[in-house]
Design goal:
With about 260 residues, the chain is of the alpha/beta class. It has 2 domains: about 90 residues, Ubiquitin-like (UB roll), CATH 3.10.20.10; about 130 residues, Cytidine Deaminase, domain 2. It is built from 8 helices and 13 strands. The strands form 3 sheets. It has a 6-stranded mixed beta sheet with strand order 9-8-10-11-12-13, with helices on both faces. Helix 1 crosses helix 6, helix 6 runs parallel beside helix 7 and helix 7 packs parallel to helix 8. It is flat and about 55 Å long. The N and C termini lie far apart (about 50 Å). About 40% of the residues are buried. About 5% of the residues have low confidence. It is found in: Cytoplasm. Required for formate dehydrogenase (FDH) activity. Acts as a sulfur carrier protein that transfers sulfur from IscS to the molybdenum cofactor prior to its insertion into FDH. One of its GO terms (cellular component) is cytoplasm. Keywords: Cytoplasm, Molybdenum cofactor biosynthesis. Its main location: cytoplasm.
Length: about 260
């Protein structure tokens, strides 16, 4: 399915009006997820890597424990439905989150809040051994941005990626920043990829929700062009995650666990 569409617009530029112009805009696609024939939720997303999104979302939200709980997934793109057959479902989480409509906005539409108890269930990353040189961070961010073609065309999506200490391994984009990370998570689960030596790279703000999703994926370092929130920094410190923001033009801010960034002086 197409992830962008052409729309007519009127452009105003330095006092000049240009009519009947065309602009590429991001596509919004509602996907309704059914688990064992019961409607769970409708997610508004970008229509690609939908199976990764479904698996990542269900696992991240605690509806299932992981890919081992999924017997089958059927995506019907023409109607916007995902049918999941699962051999295990966390009934509490499934009922608690039943029949929600999750918009693509970046506010608190996912959940009223990710409570501290959610983070307390996560693994501490104090033993993460991966480390990065500053020049590696700048190169990874440059490669990540070059791969963000849909953003450059539309300006209307968020981008997330997974890196090793040497290169960007994969990228996913979505109109919803949470969705982009769920697509990364879903891919890792399906591929059985080891992530304890991997890095999350992200285009947007590191909020507490994004920090928790990074922890759930299993990565001990997150890199971003944007800033973290106060709560995200506190949680990163508690969980042992290195959060690096404002990575631009060979500058960066290291907000937590700076020992993993190999600075000489």
């Amino acid at each position: 399915m197409e992830t962008s569409a052409s729309e007519k617009m009127v452009r105003y530029e330095r006092g000049e009006v240009k009519r009947d112009q065309e602009a590429l805009v991001a596509v919004e696609y509602p996907l309704t997820i059914y688990v064992n024939r019961e409607e769970l939720v409708t997610i508004v997303c970008t229509p690609e890597y939908l199976e990764d999104l479904v698996i990542g979302f269900l696992t991240s939200e605690g509806v299932i424990r992981g890919i081992q709980d999924v017997d089958q997934i059927e995506i019907v793109e023409s109607t916007g439905h995902a049918y999941v057959t699962a051999n295990f479902v966390n009934k509490f989480n499934a009922k608690y989150r039943a029949k929600r409509y999750i918009t693509s906005c970046c506010g608190k539409s996912r959940e009223n809040f990710y409570f501290q108890s959610d983070a307390s269930l996560l693994e501490s990353f104090n033993e993460t051994s991966i480390s990065l040189k500053p020049e590696t961070i700048f190169r990874l961010m440059m490669d990540f941005e070059e791969a963000s073609q849909t953003f450059h065309r539309t300006g209307g999506v968020h981008n997330a990626g997974l890196c090793s200490a040497e290169e960007v391994l994969l990228t996913r984009m979505d109109i919803g920043r949470h969705n982009a990370l769920d697509k990364i998570y879903g891919y890792c689960l399906e591929a059985g990829m080891s992530v304890n030596d991997k890095i999350v790279i992200f285009s947007g703000r590191i909020s507490s929700e994004i920090l928790v999703k990074t922890a759930k994926i299993g990565c001990g370092i997150i890199l971003s062009r944007s800033a973290p929130t106060e709560l995200a920094i506190q949680m990163a410190e508690e969980l042992g995650i290195t959060a690096v923001g404002f990575i631009r033009d060979e500058t960066m801010n290291i907000y937590s666990r700076p020992e993993r960034i190999l600075i000489e002086n």
